[in-house]
Write a structure and sequence with these properties.
Length: 567
């Protein structure tokens, strides 16, 4: 009896703390409503580019392609030409597809490439060296999306990005600060310093930022399509930089790169359909798996922040991430047990091993490094009035990738190779472990956590969202989904609500301020959740759109400074 009352009191305190948190977040109009479609991204300028394309009569695919190219100019830490990503789309006909434009390991590399003669992982090779770069996929992905479903000429979609790069734009404080944080790592690369400093000195708020080399690269893509990037001058510039720095990408690797259409992962949860990204991302599989695990636990009845629910969610996260490390990788190299992992009975059997009052045991081998960098992947969402939907998450991996700008081409290279396993038991930058299925092999795609997601409601409502944050992408998308469906929050509330994250190993719960208040922390500690770690930076950053009753509600995360572009 005492326990029941205590639990109820905790839930009430938790709700009050959550409301306080929501009130503390910077208040600006991060929500736009429209009846004609919307675009949300991490950059106001890029969202406006997409919105203008919708206004000109383009569809969601046109707007997504234009926004993607604009993000490569206005949000260089994660918007990119030199990285990769994933798209989950819904056509107005109701058909759903997934596009994999993930980077691919250059043909010549293997796990051995990254080990020294003693078999140890060579320092920083995966993160601050061109050997950390996979063959970029973004340009091919955006072009294929346009070729398959776009309606406006490609040039019209890339022109806004060309203009932003050539004429420049006034740097917002957030970019100035974030450039400043990169300069130590960029110092060794004159081309990076050329782009990210003002003639050698740090940019200041209000400076105009012009990127002429990037403008010329974008012009080559607008003029020649794929060949403007994967062949000819751009490809030669990439390969020259590889030769200069000991990287592995060749002209043949570039020419051979292809995006791949895949069947999305589908799940159901309380009458809603979940459509998300399949391998080589783990995002959709884990999302569906965790929702399956939670379905019986009645999150809505327990209420947001109830200690039992937080416990069930942590345990679902622990179990799902443990499976990720064993069973997932590139589906084109090994068969993966996706159907089994997203099976509802399997989820039940896994959850049956969990006790309500006792934390699971991750039996911590190899405690990973703290899995957080600031969230520098980026997600953007587009819906048009015909019911076409695009969810795209794209990244260079860590902020500004390997920090190396291709001289003469003006764009950064990714360090996505760090998402591979190079040695058993060695965690990547996000603290993630993996199996031989995710071991580096030439031509293979590294396992991702990205989860661009579409949610279709029983009431004809539709939502689209996704997130950055490495491993926390999946737990963030899970929490937004549960907030929407079980806690009946608006999209704005679902995105604002404070978040927490567990990923099996390291065995710890990371939490944003107010996600776990002191009483809840005490409750969880009593259950055996020993390591509760407050986050120094926010967890992730969600950009989503909800369509209901003829109205599009476009929401950017109040954790950052961008506004949506609604028509
Ligand atoms: O694909 C992945 O899962 C990672 N490369 C994503 C990196 C990321 O989200 C960076 N943000 N912190």
């Amino acid at each position: 009896m005492f326990l029941k009352e205590r639990v109820k009191a905790l839930a009430q305190q938790q709700r009050a703390a959550a409301i306080a948190f929501l009130l503390c977040l910077p208040v600006f109009p991060a929500v736009y409503k429209s009846d004609r479609g919307a675009v949300v991204s991490r950059s106001t300028l890029a969202s406006e580019v997409g919105r203008d394309i919708l206004k000109q009569g383009g569809n969601a695919f046109d707007a997504a392609v234009a926004t993607g190219f604009a993000l490569a100019v206005t949000y260089p830490s994660a918007g990119n030409l030199g990285g990769g990503g994933f798209a989950v789309i819904r056509l107005s006909s109701g058909e759903c597809r997934a596009l994999d434009f993930r980077e691919t390991a250059p043909k010549s590399v293997s796990a051995q490439t990254y080990l020294d003669k003693n078999g140890q992982v060579r320092d920083k090779l995966l993160t601050l060296h061109t050997l950390g770069s996979g063959v970029p996929g973004t340009v091919d992905g955006l072009l294929l999306l346009h070729k398959t479903y776009g309606t406006l000429p490609l040039r019209d979609l890339i022109n806004p990005a060309i203009q932003l790069a050539g004429e420049g734009f006034v740097l917002p404080a957030s970019l100035v600060e974030s450039f400043g944080r990169q300069l130590t790592d960029m110092k060794r690369h004159p081309a990076s310093m050329d782009v990210f400093t003002n003639g050698g000195t740090a940019y200041r708020n209000g400076d105009r930022w012009v990127q002429r080399d990037l403008m010329r690269t974008l012009k080559r893509i607008a003029g020649k399509g794929r060949a403007g990037f994967y062949e000819g001058k751009t490809a030669e510039l990439i390969v020259r930089e590889m030769k200069r720095t000991g990287g592995a990408i060749t002209l043949e690797d570039l020419k051979a790169y292809r995006s791949i259409w895949r069947e999305p992962v589908r799940g159901s949860y309380r009458g809603y359909q979940i459509i998300s990204m399949p391998p080589p991302s783990s995002g959709g599989v884990l999302l569906v798996q965790m929702l399956n695990m939670l379905e019986d636990k009645q999150p809505g009845k327990l209420g947001w922040g109830h200690p039992d629910l937080v416990h069930w969610m942590i345990e679902a996260e622990r179990l799902a991430f443990a499976d990720r490390a064993v069973y997932l990788g590139d589906p084109d190299f090994n068969p993966l047990p996706v159907e089994q992992l997203i099976d509802k009975q399997y989820a039940k059997s896994r959850m049956n091993t969990v006790e309500l009052m006792k934390a699971g045991d991750s039996s911590a081998i190899a405690e990973g490094k703290l899995p957080y960098e600031s969230p520098e992947t980026t997600h953007f969402s587009v819906m048009d009035r015909d019911g076409n939907i695009v969810a795209i998450t794209t990244t260079l991996n860590l902020p500004y990738g390997n920090k190396i700008v291709v001289p003469g081409a003006g764009f950064l290279l990714n360090n996505e190779m760090d998402d591979f396993v190079v040695k058993a038991g060695v965690a990547n930058s996000f603290g993630l472990l993996g199996s031989r299925l995710n071991l580096v092999e030439g031509g293979k795609r590294m396992l991702s956590s990205m989860a661009p997601t579409i949610l279709l409601g029983p009431d004809e409502s539709m939502a689209v969202y996704g997130a950055p944050g490495g491993s926390a992408i999946i737990t963030t998308v899970l929490q937004v989904t549960v907030n929407l469906i079980d806690h009946k929050m608006t999209l704005d509330q679902a995105i604002r609500a404070p978040r927490f994250h567990h990923q099996w190993k390291p065995d710890q719960v990371l939490f944003e301020p107010f996600a776990l208040n002191p009483a809840l922390r005490e409750n969880l500690t009593k259950r055996g959740h020993k390591k509760l770690v407050p986050c120094e930076v926010y967890i992730s950053d969600v950009n989503g759109i909800l369509y209901k009753n003829g109205l599009f509600e476009a929401v950017t995360d109040p954790r950052h400074d961008a506004l949506p572009g609604a028509q």
